[in-house]
Design goal:
Length: 292
């Protein structure tokens, strides 16, 4: 098997189609199919399930993909190291992030990074905390923005304390003089809740304060949650960074007791980063080390 066959396997698994993989790779669908068949013949097991609707990974394929990613990432690291020895800064860095970092931080990071290192390409993958953790552990991305509580056993460098806020429809809070929302006050209102995998820090706050919420509204993304709140269906907890993007008319109050999510930059193997990845990692820390 060759690096090209590994790359073709990865592309097919991402696209779910021989035709789409062929378009991306600049090959014919028959060449893609032949390469995968040759891999399967050499390995002695099927990598893909074929159907009229496309292709999906078999159980063997799912288990093999992280190792294929590791080989491809190692080759990328080798090419970057050679370029660095020649005095060049080039390569590709794949970054995973969640929504509020994607909208608030990444544009500035990418602009400032590209200005200093125009030869290094950046690919962005946006998803939930769980998505970013999966991508990091399986070699899909090199670096990932996560909250410290969601990173698990992945090493993470803390960057920013993002205050949690109670978000309410305008005029709903009975007493605005105190300027915050405590647990007893929050118990008086229905909640619009996000699924547990969506924001680990909010779930942690609710559990630590025995706030067993009842909700008829279970959504995934931040914008939908706040939209439901703005229409009067309940209240919610949101990080302050999220609320910078929200166009809806709502009122925000710091929660009491005070609570924060700690945002950081995570990398599975800090000691063995490719040169371009290490450059990006250090650039992010330099950009945000001054934040509270």
């Amino acid at each position: 098997m060759t690096l090209l066959s590994y790359q073709i396997f990865k592309t097919v698994s991402e696209q779910g189609s021989f035709r789409k993989a062929a378009d991306i790779s600049g090959l014919t669908p028959s060449a893609i199919s032949h390469t995968i068949a040759a891999m399967e013949g050499e390995l002695g097991f099927l990598l893909l399930n074929r159907s009229k609707s496309g292709v999906t990974l078999t159980n063997y394929g799912e288990h093999l993909l992280p190792y294929v990613n590791a080989v491809l990432n190692s080759n990328e690291s080798l090419q970057q190291a050679i370029a660095e020895f020649n005095g060049l800064k080039q390569g590709t860095v794949k970054v995973g992030c969640f929504s509020s970092v994607c909208t608030n931080w990444l544009p500035d990071i990418i602009h400032s990074f590209k200005k200093e290192y125009p030869g290094i390409s950046i690919e962005v993958f946006q998803g939930t905390y769980d998505d970013v953790v999966y991508w990091l552990k399986n070699g899909v991305v090199d670096l990932g923005f996560l909250s410290v509580s969601s990173a698990g056993d992945i090493p993470i460098e803390p960057l920013y304390r993002d205050q949690l806020l109670c978000v309410m429809p305008p005029g709903l809070k009975k007493d605005v003089s105190d300027g915050y929302m405590d647990i007893d006050q929050m118990r008086q209102y229905p909640f619009v809740s996000q699924r547990e995998s969506t924001d680990a820090d909010i779930q942690k706050f609710l559990k630590e304060n025995s706030l067993n919420i009842q909700s008829h509204y279970h959504v995934v993304d931040d914008l939908s949650t706040v939209a439901m709140v703005a229409e009067g269906f309940g209240i919610c907890i949101m990080p302050e960074l999220v609320m910078r993007d929200i166009p809806y008319q709502v009122e925000c109050y710091p929660v009491m007791p005070e609570a924060f999510r700690i945002i950081g930059i995570a990398a599975p193997n800090k000691e063995f980063m490719a040169p371009a990845v290490r450059t990006m990692y250090n650039h992010v820390i330099d950009c945000y080390k001054h934040l509270p």
